[in-house]
Amino acid sequence: MKKADDLARSAGMARRKPLWPKFAPDMPPILRDIAVAVCRELLDPGIDAGIIGNSTIDPAVNPDPEKGGYSGRPLFPKALKEVGGAAARLNGGLTLVGNGGIFDGHDAYTMMKQSGCPLVQVHSAFPYQGPTIARKMQQELLEAMDRHGMRHVSEIAGPTAGRPTAATFRTEAGPGCGTGWLRRCAAAGSLRCPRDRRWCG
Asked: Is the separation of the CB atoms in 122 and 102 below 8 Å?
């Protein structure tokens, strides 16, 4: 198998965009482990990542699988278990993004702490709570970090979770700071601005 970088070069691409494949939480553990192994083999941990969690047709969560995938808060316990299984398999070899039923900063903290993923993705919470949920979740997550004496988001998932690099984050400046601060903070693994305690990315 060719790695993603080799495939890009063979196609004449000077650079390639990051690849973040996403896997459903309904995958049997054996298939999930195979998918994780392939990602570790082919992807670049410096810029790529894997996402676990999406809608589910599991009848234990979905009241009517015939109508398609089910998402939202009821998915969280299942997503937490699946992300944890994938994180244990990866053991820090690739950045893992937890997704599924995350509606507030507490959910985000729990997903990162209990499953061992350094990043989370939010979907269903936006139409229910609006775009301001991002700022609200950010503040709730910072408060949880303060309660546990943490200075960096990377501390939540632990040292084996893999640290997101500067390429993981957006390149525009965060509130109240310049791009120079953004690059330095992200490269150091910190999402909290050292100047005003806000996030850079």
From this structure: yes
Q: If DSSP codes are grouped into helix, strand and coil, which group holds residue 34?
A: helix
pLDDT at 45: 82
Nearest by Cα to 192 from 138, 121, 135? 138
Check pLDDT > 60 for residue 187. no
Of 105, 52, 54, 104, give the one whose Cα is nearest residue 75: 54
119-121 and 49-52 as β-strands: parallel, antiparallel, unpaired? Answer: unpaired
Q: Rounded to an integer, what distance in angstroms lies between the CA atom of residue 81 and that of residue 45?
A: 23
Q: How far apart are CA 20 and CA 50, in angstroms?
A: 5
Q: Which residue has the higher pLDDT, 71 or 105?
A: 105
The answer to whether the predicted template modeling score (pTM) of the entire model surpasses 0.90 is: no
